[in-house]
Write a structure and sequence with these properties.
The protein is mainly alpha-helical. The protein has a single domain, classed as Orthogonal Bundle (Ribosomal Protein S7), CATH 1.10.455.10. It is 55% helix and 10% strand. It has six helices and two strands. The protein starts with 19 loop residues before the first helix and ends in a 9-residue tail after the last helix.
Length: 155
């Protein structure tokens, strides 16, 4: 690499919960720079989660995110003409980013009416250790476990 790495930008905590994790999630959820819409969708989803579970919505969200955050992933590496899937540890900020992106992606694919309902459904499912995002994490871990034999090729 010729140039230095880009500096990590400091995120301001969101106004309602005063949490930078929420800001990060809303930024991932946002389309076309519409942050207000994205934050309204998120806040509605948290309220729905709180009603469904009779617990604090933000705590359920954090638990759900922790449940779908992967620990290892597989990366492709060519060694002597063959491509191997090599399991590698994931650095902490990437773990959280992957978990958030999976939650948003699988929320968008759900069949509820509005995006806030879809997101609430995925959060509740992930908190119970079920749902598509949790399954994705399990599949990622299984793939890493299956390719454990190639871990000596790590870069």
């Amino acid at each position: 690499m010729r140039k230095s790495r880009a500096k990590k930008r400091v995120l301001l905590p969101d106004p309602k919960f005063n949490d930078t994790l929420v800001t990060r999630f809303v930024n991932n959820l946002m389309y076309d720079g519409k942050k207000t819409t994205a934050s309204n969708v998120f806040y509605e989803a948290i309220e729905t989660v709180a009603k469904r579970t009779n617990e604090d919505g933000l705590e359920v969200f954090k638990k759900a995110l922790a449940n779908i955050t992967p620990q290892v992933e597989v990366k492709s590496r060519r060694v002597g003409g063959a491509t191997f899937q090599i399991p590698t540890e994931i650095r902490p900020d990437r773990k959280v980013a992957m978990g958030m992106k999976w939650m948003i992606m699988y929320s968008r694919r759900r069949n509820e009416k509005s995006m806030s309902q879809k997101l609430a459904g995925e959060i509740v499912a992930a908190a119970k250790e079920e749902g598509a995002a949790f399954k994705k994490k399990e599949d990622t871990h299984k793939m890493a476990e299956a390719n454990k034999a190639f871990s000596h090729f790590r870069f």
